[in-house]
Amino acid sequence: MLCRKDPCGIVCIALTYAMLLHCLYVILFVLILPLFNESLYGTLNALIICTLVFFSIISHGRAAYFDPGFVPLPKKAIDFSDVKNGDSSNNLIKPTEEGWTVCNRCDTYRPPRAHHCRICKRCVRKLDHHCPWVNNCVGEFNQKYFILFLFYIGATSVYSVIFIIWTLIVFPEKTEAQIVHAVVICVESCLFGIFVITVFVDQLQSIVTDRSLIDNLKLSESSRMAQQILPPKRVLFRKVFGSGPLICWLCPFDLNKSNPPINSSEMYHV
């Protein structure tokens, strides 16, 4: 389990959990219990908000505290000076496949599309970006959970706004505390919801184009606009979410390991 001491990341995580718990408190104890008086409709809405918040927290935890795809460090220091200087006469170290490179910062032999994160100080497989909201990198092993976190936060935000507006219409007489809490939740849900939905769409676009944010930044303008030959979209999504029916893609648990970690001994040919 990972826990970085990045101040910005710690603040963002605390803010995320605070807003989720505040939303849960307002919907359950400020609106549903006083207004619906334990009716079946109130129970149904309580179950919906609890499920959304639960899946949001689980998805966030998987994205924040688990390995995003760190490239294993060598057990012994390896001299990469010849490789860095472009000397091809030294055949001591050879990549096992095309596209492997040497990181100039952590001296790690890394596979294609792996990039170095300056905050984590490690190379990450298929690194997309370092997200302060999960205080972790978004890479090959946790992109699914990051996308699910965005999806469930967006769903929670949309549900909260619709439910609160509906209660304002159906129950016009409310206490001052209920009105204040309802306004605060609506503002939080709109701001946070718009942000996560935008990032969610961007993540889906990166899957469809098979290019992460870092990949796009490192490509030249001509390479970025060049025509790509890509596999079917369903294959690209399966690479991130794993095999199985669509309903399993929405589950923030490891039903099957689609991306097993690579043994560090297989990453160096000495």
Automatic annotation (TrEMBL):
UniProt keyword Flavoprotein present: no
Homology family: Belongs to the DHHC palmitoyltransferase family.
Top-level class of the enzyme under EC nomenclature: transferase
Keywords, ordered alphabetically: Acyltransferase, Membrane, Transferase, Transmembrane, Transmembrane helix
UniProt cross-references to PROSITE patterns, sorted A to Z: DHHC
Protein name: Palmitoyltransferase
Subcellular location: Membrane
Span of domain Palmitoyltransferase DHHC: 99-216
Transmembrane annotation, as ranges: 12-33, 39-58, 145-171, 177-201
UniProt-listed Enzyme Commission number(s): 2.3.1.225
Acyltransferase in keyword set: yes
